Amino acid sequence: MEALADACAANDYPAMIVGVLTDRAGAGGLTVAAQRGIATAALPRAEFADKAAHEAAIGDQLRAWNAEFVCLAGFMRLLSAHFLAPWQGRIINIHPSLLPRHKGLDTHARALAAGDAEHGCSVHHVTAGMDEGPVIAQARVPVLSGDTPDTLAARVLAEEHRLYPEALRMLIEQTAR
User: Fold this and answer.
1) Domain range enclosing 149
2) Which one from 54, 95, 102, 125 is the annotated catalytic residue?
3) Is residue 76 scored above 90 in pLDDT?
4) The domain spanning residue 54 has which CATH number?
């Protein structure tokens, strides 16, 4: 979120952040966003009767902000096809692996265990399945001898911070054509 906020602060970037929404009330991104003057909302899943009610509240908030694109970062829930339909082509996520390899959690440890020579991150369109949407962009890092999940994660995170704003820019420019 901070990498996107930094990019959006540049005069030549084609987007601005209209709000930061989380399903965890104590998420650190809320404080960072508020300090930058960005609107925030916390909608904890436990406060809603079911997934449909939670997603309806998320959709209501996004519409209230007049959001045009949705960029997920650390949102660890699958969204329903019903929720995603109006956002098709305009909701993206960043994932710490070279999709389609290593969907889901613990990607760095899994890349090491698999003996992968390279690892990285992917920005992809969000679909109702886990980490299965079409890939927009990827960044690769070598897996080094002696890497641990933490050292590999640190190199991938640096690429995530570079790649996500680039991928969003590409998507916005494609959509504007």
Assistant:
1) 2-176
2) 95
3) no
4) 3.40.50.170
